[in-house]
User: Fold these one by one.
Assistant:
Number 1:
Amino acid sequence: MKWFFPIFYILVFLISAGCVTDKSEEISDIETILTDYPIFSQKRKAAKFLLKNMDFHVTSEGRDVEKYRDMSYDNNLSEEILDSLLKNLFHRMIPHKNVISKDFLKREIELSFELWEKCLWKDDISFDLFIKYILPYSICSEPVFSWRKELNDYYTPLIAGITDPKEAFDKVYVNIRENFKLKDIDSDFQRDLGVLHFTRNGTCNDRSLYMVAVMRSLCIPSAFDFTPYWANYSTVGHSWVSYVGNGNEIYVFSTIDDSISQKNGYIDGSLFDKKLQFDDASSIFKVDSLKKTAKVFRKSFANPNKNIGSIYVADVSNLYGYNNNITLNTQLSKQEVYLCTFQSGNDWIKVDEGKVKNKKVEFQNLANDITCLPVYKEGLNYLPLCNPITIYPDGTQIVRNPDLGNTEEVILRRKYALFTFWAPNRWSNYIGLTIEGSDYPDFRSVDTLFKLNEMPLGVTTVSITSDKAYRYVRYRPPEKTHMALTDLTFYGVNKDGNKIELTGDIIFDHIEYEEAMKAFDKDFLTTSNSRFNWYWIGMDLGEGNEYKISMVRFCPWNDGNFIESGNEYELFYYDMKWISLGSKIATETYLTYQDVPKNGVLWLRNLTKGREERIFTYENGKQIWW
């Protein structure tokens, strides 16, 4: 998600606006709208608000834009064709004042006031809320489109009889959430509201745009809020819609199961559900249940003078309860200073701008439980002001200066954060699986060699003691489940007492052969699964097999971020730059590094494959992800 509008375009708009002389008459014509309203009237104030803040708002134009819009209304065209066109769509960005007429602006003002006057909660909406969150005809940089009446006509029946704007917000939000299909779209082009109303699909950015427009058409004060990047997850950020009450109170939906928005709740999309209670204190992994943010911003029609690549972005972090400040002594004077969080697999990336005053740098209204890096701009480069800073959940701060004189051994099992999406939500379903041996291919007589009584944590190796060598061995999921596997390996001991991997013919029941094969391909991302409620897969070790099963390794469905044997990895620590601790080829499902400086921020890179990698610290024998 590329949230911030490049400053390059803004410069182009300024230049183009200054060079196209015949547009000056159009601009003057727009400004004459003020004479249509009495001097102290609310409508005149509304017109002045729109004119004052219109300067740098832009819209997309071009033949491709019109072509895409027309094709989007064709039910005979597939989403694949439309997405292909969208991916390569050529468009140019034009300032609003160059394309919006006085008549358009007046219609928008008149209609917004008309709808405000007749809504059942008119007295609950202050003029300030109306001006900021209902009046504006544009939300992002979407093509200008007269959407207000069409959306109002469509959604008004949904809230018939409701007299409370917050209740109406909840009703509309849930309806759109249930009927808008979220999908990834590889394009920077912001589709117009007519197309979004027709297709009801798109990114979270598209959905937020559509929701806010619908809310405005119904005179429900709401805002397009977003975080440019998660602080512990993914390479992108997220957007959502909040209800805005008098006094700037905000209400949000935290999960897709919510039917009522909550004041000061978790932001949309940030909370991984936890189906079972799971205490990771005794686990080898730290498990997170929350996607974290460092800052929260808001798309604003008015210019709040918050310039992080876009001048129409307001910092609303304080409204979400983010109240931590970072203050650093500095010799800087006029340099630009920024705060960065880590973007998965890519390095540090800017999320906020700081202030330099009286030989101090300050970053305000930051979240808890994050690790961030203050930087300053020197020429074309961004240089660290200090080493990364961790803000703990209780608000205490620590600078992560690696202690080069105090090192430790670290055992690394993953390169990316582990979330409750996997443990316990998915992996708890594997409790009860069995490893069984038999002398019959149909397992009509069977011995249970192992039964799983606790949740597996990814790649799992279990020792088995057996007095008998079986020809047939199998993995059987718990009854009435079809929990998928990505790896299944049987081991025995040879005459010399050495561990060996056992081989044979793959056997299975109630699963396709191609699916069963995936459990034995040594790839943790290929998933062996069945369409039936039960199945089993195993191995025929051959007639006269003499090897007793001594160990079994299995791995449930997962994200592929465990350490994989045969892959090459490199570990770094941060000390004003990334410093390598060397590369290794994994021979097990974990890596061991010696002489790692304590207190440092670490980054484990997979040089063989994959991009999902996050920074972490090593505390009490665990990787703690940031």
Number 2:
Amino acid sequence: MCGIVGYTGKKQAQQFLLEGLAALEYRGYDSAGLEVLSPDGELHGVKCSGRVATLAERCKTANLVGTQGIAHTRWATHGAPTDRNAHPHLDCTGRIAIVHNGIIENFQEIRSYLRQHGHTIATDTDTEVIAHLIEDAWAGPAKGDLVAATRNALARLRGSWALAVECADAPGEIVVARQGSPVVVASTPDGAYAASDAMPLAGVTKHVISLEDGQLARLSADGSVQVYDADGLPNDHPMTLDIDFDASAATLGGYSDFMAKEISEQPEAIERLLKGRLTEHGIELDELSMTKEELASIDRVYLVACGTSYHVCLIARELIERWAKIQAVCEYASELNYKEPMITDHTLCVIVTQSGETADTLTAAKRMRAMGCKVFAITNVLGSTAARESDGTMYVQAGPEVCVASTKAYTAQIVAASLMTLRLAYANGSMDTGEIQRRYHDLEQLPDLIREVLSRRWQDKKVAKAFRKAHSALFLGRGVNSTTAYEGALKLKEISYLHAEAYPAGEMKHGPIALLEPGFPVVAIVPADHVHDKTVSNIQEVQARGAHCIAVATDGDVEVAQQCEDTLWIPPVPEEELVPVVAIVHLQMLARYVALERGCDVDKPRNLAKSVTVE
């Protein structure tokens, strides 16, 4: 949610700023802008609602010459997504520019104060007040010290921020700060860089500094970076991270869109995650940072997440209860934050977040830790806030996920949850070594099973035509695959803007059946599992109302094929608990083809953000 980039150094800034914004498009946004300090000592900027491509076109005629600048993609929270509200924002003098990701909770109070003291507020945003507070500090005792002026302003704020500041009267210098929203900086021979995450910097460095809450950094044109703590004291040992992916991983590489690329990368992502995890003593999972005795004592697991990651939790609950024989509770992070969870000395909290920056999930993690709960994170982003707020972290190693709708991170997170469950099961004696090894080898089969489904994408392309004139759709599944239905419906909504609902198949007759009419698309997940026959009965109910039924079924299921207009075939899966990892691949591809049929941008769906950093 929102993207920040900044550069000061030897090169012209505009090219990196635009390329950096493009690399951050996956975060979701509705406007963009940049501000460059020119050799004449003035700030010159371009802003627009819409895409980075539109901004780049406007920049062609703007003559933005200069080796220092900041830029931003905005996801609107305060004020409509207009040119006027796009970042960067300036102070009254036009000498200070700022970009910001986060929420300023007391901005109304500060805005009133600023107006009473002669400031002109030009936008509807919460961010603009920061520029004016820095203006006041710069005019006072902090003049000549942009770090001090920024610290002075931040002391008056409540909320969260990652921000970058430049001042025409402090050439060659950018100040960056963090509180609750991620930002990284880098020092190179060509200059100093800042960005919301490492993605824009993969092409210029292999090492970044990840700021921690309360820290600021001064970026200088000679490429040096100085980090300061909240008191303004230099920090000579900041947190450094290695960029663990090649810059080409965030390029299309011959694919027409990132969603297609990332769907196809799922087998390799799972293989990386599984590699080296099995030992003669069970599953190697040092990330849990708990002794075998501590793991054996766990009697309840809270699984906490939002969106697609919440669906991972629903599947993890099934795994934990079936395999490890431990009670598991799933909670939306946004709901848990206003509940009173039942915590004991033996409760484990598992947070699942692709970005590691989901605000609701992080708030829940902090709260659960404060209540005495051990917190374990499953995430995809190295050095993310989730890792810092947790007692242990498992990185799913899916690689950069640029498409806003998650695909490869979802399946990798399910496999990560499976490994965690096996470790718990071994610790408490629910499974012996032989059983652990068998389940692990079942997991090892998943990449090739997914490759087989990928080879059948023509089935999804054909079936997508059934949704061309639809206004809604229904997804059904039983047991663990009711969650596959939830995730399939979510994917369809996210990228095709076609309304879809998902229900446990047995619940269809308790209301949703009223939607059915001739031609209405219904997707039923009906693999060869212990509830197969019950789901077939629900398919017959669908057929009796004339709806268009599309089954996701196991190879050779003649009965289902005869009762449905279309079938998306999956190969046999060794454990029914693992079917969701294979079956969802069809529904990911189906959603993509439906979106393309409807003329939608599958990588950048409207209104959505990859990393939701506000509550």
Number 3:
Amino acid sequence: MQHNIIDTQDVVIRFAGDSGDGMQLTGSLFANMSAVLGNGLSTFPDYPAEIRAPKGTVSGVSGYQVHIGSHKVSTPGDYCDMLVAMNPAALKANARWLGRTAMVLVNEDAFDAQGMEKAGFTTDDPFVELGIEDRTIIAAPITRLTQESLSDSGLDMPAILKCKNMFTLGMACYIYSRPLDYVYDYIESKFGKKHPEMVAPNKKVVTDGFNYAAAIQAIPNTYRVEPADLEKGRYRNITGNQAIAWGFIAAAEKAGIPLFCGSYPITPATSILEELALHKNLGVKTMQTEDEIAGICTAIGASFAGNLAVTTTSGPGLSLKSEALGLAVMTELPLVVVDVQRGGPCTGLPTKTEQSDLSEALYGRNGESPLVVMASSSPADCFDKAFLAAKIALEHMTPVVLLSEGFLGNGSEPWKIPSMAGYPQIKPRFAASGQSSFHPFERDSQTFAREWAFPGQKGYEHRVGGLEKTPRGVLSTDPDNHALMVRERAEKVARVAADLPALEVEGPQQGDLLVVGWGGTAGHIRTAAGMLRKEGIAVSTAHFSFINPLPPQTEEVFSRFSRIMVCELNSGQFAAWLRSCLPGHEYIQYNKVQGQTFLSAELADAIRKAL
């Protein structure tokens, strides 16, 4: 069979198997080596929701999708060009994501009668049963080949079987022209010091996987993806959760104050706390608390004491934090609450992505309790939004809810490491020394922010707490005073808009339809618009990172279009917010609530129909 090397601009690969098959590691290694090679990149880890789902069942399948390109990549891709399925359940769970000309690599050793039965197949040909027999099927005895590769390694059988993923990674590296140097370096760094006996076996098995793929006749083509023409600079692959942690560290440094994070572990936000805990050398203090309420309360206490205070959570935890979040509104202390959204309600879909916490962030407190709500739009953007959330909280003396999503928090993309000299200074609202008197709720005439005094400052003794007070800090139930303080707290949040960038429109600046979204839908909407522009269809889009308050000139932008199409991963929460803030426009909705991201193709179809 003639072997062809095909140059291609995009490749989407989905690695899938049981939770113990190492597919998350395999996918992340493939992604990281592609980042080192200079490819555009976007990833999407897809974890099972059950902690210990029965082995070999569809509910226990773990996946990792990687999209690499010779250009900037904005999404993990709609359908995959190759599916790696380590068992029948992985094939069954992911067959619907196969492209029309996709390749399917399966571990044929797992496709025995027991494996087929556990996966729910009713015939002895899973490819025909799934209707994918027309794809290029590569059935390799990966388990047996791994055992043969490591038969003289001295490892016991459980350790040998754990190396199946490295054999598979070697095959994938051959098919997509990835050199093995990065994998060798990873093996050295992971095992070199603590488990040196694992270095040689892992190097051997990944090399044998590469050579096996090169030797068999079942692979007609291999593919080459050239480096992307990215802006010059130093890049690294970064996840959204890691970027949020680093953004807070950078903000604390710019503000000249310590960083404190009080949090309770919750999927998919836990790794922010874990990342921050690694950086005590940078003055970061972390506290893993006994529950969500304690997490936010310790953060409020740290803020009262003069720290940049953050707490991290997901939707169920945000519900538990609601009373204390109202306390932060009433005390007017700077605080950033990160909500990495997942499918709800209640515990819902812990490992699946969604945008359904927006109404909770906007309204989920008792009383008139306004605060700033903003959202990240990509894994790399999480750094900038965390930095900016901290800046707003410290300079406007308000809690800020920063909305991320499971797709962003766990996903990754290349991030150009910035020069911090290009980031603005953060100027907290410290109470000026030498004041003849200090009244805690007297306000700046422009921002309406109060001043921030810490315990122990002589002459600045004051009370803050959950009860209403006068501007001088005296407890009060006077109706006129309460009305005044409610108005002023709302006005303070509204005036944050003066520091926000104006809403930008991509495409025609006026017309029949403006397509808008918020948060992590940015890449999918831009990709869909690009698909339509290639067809000669003019599409206008605008994306929101700031939700309360909305960016300046939003009303003026909307007035230039006949209809506003709102695309979001919920049942219409942002559309409802826009209707309440900016009535008088015709809003149409495109919603998806499946625990999955949008597909760019489905968005393009929806926009095409609307036009």
